[in-house]
Amino acid sequence: MSNQSIGVRVHHLRKTFRRGEVQACDDVNLDIAQGELLVLLGPSGCGKTTTLRCIAGLELPDNDDAIWVNGKNMTRVAPKDRNLAFVFQETAMFPHLTVRRNISFGLDMRRKVNKAEINRRVDDAAQMLKLQQLLDRYPRELSGGQGQRVALGRAIVTEPDAFLLDEPLAALDAALRVEMRTEIKLIQRRLKTAMIFVTHDQEEALTIGDKIAVMKDGVVQQEDTPHQIYHRPVNLFVGTFIGSPPINQFQCSLQDDGTTWRLISRHFNIALPDSIAQRLKPISALVILGLRPEFLRLGDSQGDFTGVVKLTELLGSRTLVLIESEGEEIRALVQGASQVKEGDQVSLSLDLDKAFYFDENGMALI
Ligand code: ATP
Hints:
The chain is α+β, with helices and mostly antiparallel strands. It has 2 domains: 3-237, P-loop containing nucleotide triphosphate hydrolases (Rossmann fold); 248-358, CATH 2.40.50.140. It is built from 9 helices and 20 strands. Strands 6-7-8-3-9-10 form a 6-stranded mixed sheet, sandwiched between helices. It has a 5-stranded antiparallel sheet with strand order 13-12-11-14-20, covered by helices on one side. The radius of gyration is 25 Å and the shape is elongated. Bound molecules: adenosine-5'-triphosphate.
């Protein structure tokens, strides 16, 4: 624990509610270095908020050594003595105080920070958050996005050891969310403070995180860089939760036809490159092949299998093509506008080097 570059360490965190009936956090381990932005990602009820509240001191973990900040055990330390800043989805502002006073409120309470220092910090934060013109306004005169900036400003001026953000952008409209997440990342880069950011939005997680911890049922499934999480999911849950549109899944069996190993599904019967077969065959005869829609190639002949186009959707620079094959829906993402239209028969080729291979329990095989 002497490693000072670790800002926040969550150590075998367990938290149960209702006398053990609900296990909200089940042996959660996380390391967030100073200057690092970790995203806690997962579906509703997976334990993200409880983890964050335990770090903040708003919930008491079951174990006594669960929360460490800058090498100190904070598990039983009062929230106000942890020097952490918490930003929620909804900002509670004092309606009768100006933006400036709302931002400085936490500091006004601290005797050791003098007036000039408070003003300096508020002005710095206002500049970072583009709030300079709004400092004399009252909360009712702000938009939702501006309100969230004030909440961030309030956190920044306390110069915390770590920022804890619980779905801070969830109440904003889509365009503003995208703008604000970039700003939060830039601010965090500038301040070089540890930040833990909770969201259930996988796109937000991929864009903002230095690392992502994907949670399910109180358990961290994978903690890794966005690139690894996207391209090397450890299990089917992570593979399907990340990525939009989601991966295609094919139930396959692995069979030796005497000369090559073949992957056989209701859609296709294809020879596996030796490099992949050698790694798969000792492990499992049943394989779930996962393929991101961008790694499925469309053509008019010589593919691995065929289907009929049900729908095309233009998604800006790319087009999502929904294809029906053997009664199942397959998703392909193509660059630019689609060359195919509804009702067309198309051939599909799998990029086997880019595919994921899971066993029947959904654990990654290679
Ligand atoms: P969401 O995205 O919906 O906020 P979450 O991932 O943040 O979900 P938590 O709020 O941490 O999930 O909840 C984890 C589990 O613990 C859920 O099953 C929830 O019902 C339960 N839980 C949370 N707080 C309490 C509480 N005070 N009493 C009982 N159960 C609780």
